[in-house]
Design goal:
By secondary structure, the chain is mainly alpha-helical. It contains 17 helices and four strands. Strand 1 and strand 2 form a beta hairpin.
């Protein structure tokens, strides 16, 4: 029988940190009496091959336990980073952005850890449940997502006691069993959360979501209305037509906003917009001037005009063009720019409450989170 080629085995990623590759030969190891730690000085292929079956099982269990401990530590660190909002200081618009882009987690793995971090922040007892494996990350993520949907659907805050009770029902359940349990509690809510996105190829993505009957009737009516152009329109084709129509409107709106993109023209327009407004009603050469006493009475009776927060459309357009429609927050340490286009808001560089002007020079674009973070 041919000898098995162990060079094709997948090696542990952290192996190089645990052992130093040396010149020691396999003769220096007694086959069954020495622990895995004593085999560390060997090259990884020989070290693994030198283990008998029992030792191999023992060490994989130790590695799995260490991995769980490290995962729990990662979750606790994420929870604290979220509590302090440190990811905003680093220029990330969301905790998810930080965990995926800075820490390098895949989106699904990142979301499981974030959901677990939020859960243990509210219910510290869940830490022990995750540690003793009675609650997996996937199940905790399912429960947390269910609670978020329920709060959003009802418009009411879910109490800690209710959340604790839910996670008790999910203990020692697999992902599938937990899904069934949640469906029994709120079938309609679970159907709403059946939204999925799966990449099939370089150019194709599968979308799955649930819609209500009213939306379905409207969709069918629109498909009938467009049946002359496409008598056998599929759901995917209908979705594409609607997206292209709305996107065309967005592109047209953007092109209208970006007609004047010349920097010198923008600067000239800004200087005109930011200039002091004229009062056409005042006539300096008027022959009739009030007496000093009359002027004093008028000034006493005239109410003081409150400064307005109103920003003219022209100023907004210039600021939007200059900042290219994205968040301008920059981390002073690593100079990382946020660049998010989500919930973009106009922000005063010198705050409005400190006499900041509604001028192009004093305005910038920030995402909602960085705008609130700055306050």
């Amino acid at each position: 029988m041919e000898e098995y080629d162990y060079s094709k085995e997948v090696q542990l990623e952290f192996w190089s940190e645990l052992c130093e590759v040396g010149n020691t030969t396999s003769e220096s190891i007694s086959s069954e009496k020495k622990s895995f730690a004593e085999t560390m000085p060997f090259p990884k292929d020989k070290a693994i091959k030198s283990l008998d079956g029992n030792a191999l099982i023992e060490e994989i269990r130790k590695a799995a336990k260490n991995e769980q401990d490290l995962t729990l530590q990662v979750i606790e660190l994420i929870a604290e980073i979220n509590r302090r909002k440190i990811f905003l200081k680093l220029g990330f618009s969301s905790l998810f952005d930080f965990v995926t882009k800075d820490l390098g987690y895949e989106p699904s793995s990142a979301m499981r850890r974030i959901q677990a971090a939020r859960a243990i922040a509210e219910i510290p007892e869940l830490r022990e449940k995750i540690a003793d494996r009675s609650l997996s990350l996937s199940v905790v993520s399912q429960g947390q997502n269910f609670l978020n949907k329920k709060a959003s659907d009802s418009g009411k805050k879910i109490s800690i006691a209710e959340k604790t009770e839910l996670f008790k029902k999910l203990e020692n359940k697999s992902t599938r069993e937990a899904e069934k349990e949640l469906f029994k509690l709120a079938p309609e809510l679970c159907l709403k959360s059946k939204e999925q996105e799966k990449v099939l190829s370089e150019n194709l993505t599968e979308l799955r979501f649930v819609i209500d009957n009213e939306t379905k009737e409207k969709m069918d009516e629109l498909k009938l209305w467009m049946s002359h152009q496409n008598p056998d329109m599929t759901q995917a084709q209908f979705f594409k037509v609607m997206v292209e129509k709305l996107h065309g409107q967005l592109v047209k709106k953007k092109s209208n906003q970006n007609k004047s993109t010349d920097p010198s023209q923008i600067e000239q327009d800004a200087s005109i917009i930011c200039a002091e407004p004229r009062n056409e009603n005042l006539k300096e050469n008027s022959k009739e001037k009030p007496s000093p006493i009359g002027a004093q009475r008028l000034s006493q009776n005239k109410p003081s005009r409150k400064k307005s927060r109103y920003i003219s459309a022209s100023v907004k357009k210039l600021v939007w063009q200059r900042d290219q429609g994205c968040c301008q927050f920059v981390d002073p340490g690593n100079q990382k720019k946020c660049g998010s286009r989500y919930q973009i808001q106009f922000d005063h560089v010198q705050p409005f409450r400190h006499q900041g002007e509604n001028s192009v020079e004093n305005l910038r674009l920030l995402c909602g989170k960085h705008n609130r973070f700055r306050d």
